[in-house]
Amino acid sequence: MFKWWVRIYFPISTYRFYSGHVLYNKRMFVDEADIEVKSGKGGDGIVHFHKEKYVNRGGPDGGDGGWGGDIVFVVNPHINTLETFRHRSLFVAEDGKRGGVNDQTGKSAPALIIEVPLGTLITDQESGDVLFDLVKEGDSFVACPGGRGGRGNPHFANAHRQAPRIAEKGEPGQGKRLHLELKLIADIGIIGMPNAGKSSFLAAVTNAKPKIADYPFTTLVPNLGVAVLNDNVVLVLADIPGLIEGAHTGLGLGDAFLKHIQRTRVLIHLVDGASADPLADYAQINTELSLFDPELGQKPQVVAINKIDMPDVAERVDAIAASFKEKGIALNFISALARQNLTDILWKAQHELVELPEISEESSLPIYRPESREAAFELKRTTEGWRLTGGAIERAAAMTYWEYFESVRRFHRILESMGIEDAMQEAGVREGDRVLIGKHELVWSDNWED
């Protein structure tokens, strides 16, 4: 047999802080943030025996600990940026309360609710796995469940052990480093080169009020607008800031906004009729879409040449139409400023939209759920001795009362049942070796009964 006891207790290093990433200070539009979350620890169960006048040898009555608080993300439709996370990047839920005497269970901690806007994608920073995609009002996601409360000593009483001096500490909370990414949700995305007239188009067909001026990169943040075609047809449009060559690598306003197009189903591609080569501009934008995400290049597009109200553009209409026709591209001519032919463009986009197959909630975005590896463990030799890691065994160590012999013996049985003891013998762990488990340093002994 083998024996374990605590030698030294030392704290885990505190959590690091991660500040939210601000893409542009102007208007403080924040669409990405790195944060740290930690659910609450479960309350400790206690060792206690009933005490009452005239009652000898009262039975065990140590109460269980309460549950630790969960970390829960909830959609709030009234917010539209991740601005909050620029000022706060660490979220820690409350711990459950310790159990009491007379079998009183400790109070469970409330969940820590973190509100995020629609379209927030939550990713595990360490694994890169997509954990959840909050795409509709009412969506919620428990990122880290709170720790279970430890059991009091009544749970360990039996016919052979009527006065157990054994209880559990509360289960530690779970910690994660998460990446939050906001992707605007719209039916139709408006794309094109800088200064192609996207903001003017959005302003003309909706009540949105984007910044409009005659110079590139006027739009520094995506804008949303709602276009009402009739009582039954309402479109949500997103004006995506202008793209340039190399946008997929981050040049210009680049990949910071390309991801917003991923949410849209149909694209209105505006081409600047005053450009020296409209066809080249059209090809360049489509190249950037495909390089960023091959599926973006497959989205249906309604292509429109803008600014036909300008005399020099009106003179080139036939030449522009001929160049696009050679490539088999259907073309439309509009003026966002003069509001010419805008309704026709919207109806064509609506037609493309209804022709697309319905997207179920399950297929809107793949959710990767890696298989649980809680029971897995790893043993490594270090300069300090041995390091034993694994979700389940580290949690069991944290929940053990090392000052009670019976609790230590129970931990030993856990090692046996998980196959860890055999693995340690095979690895060469010997009498007096130090073994680190979580934040506990233990000493291996061959003399279990002493």
TrEMBL record:
Annotated keywords: Cytoplasm, GTP-binding, Hydrolase, Magnesium, Metal-binding, Nucleotide-binding
Residues involved in Mg(2+) binding: 199, 219
Keyword Nucleotide-binding tagged: yes
Residue ranges occupied by any Obg domain in the UniProt entry: 27-185
Cofactor needs: Mg(2+)
Principal subcellular localization: cytoplasm
UniProt domain OCT: residue ranges: 369-446
Ligand binding (GTP): 192-199, 217-221, 239-242, 306-309, 335-337
One function term, GO molecular function aspect: GTP binding
GO terms for biological process, alphabetical: ribosome biogenesis
Subunit structure: Monomer.
The name this protein goes by in its record: GTPase Obg
Gene this protein is translated from: obg
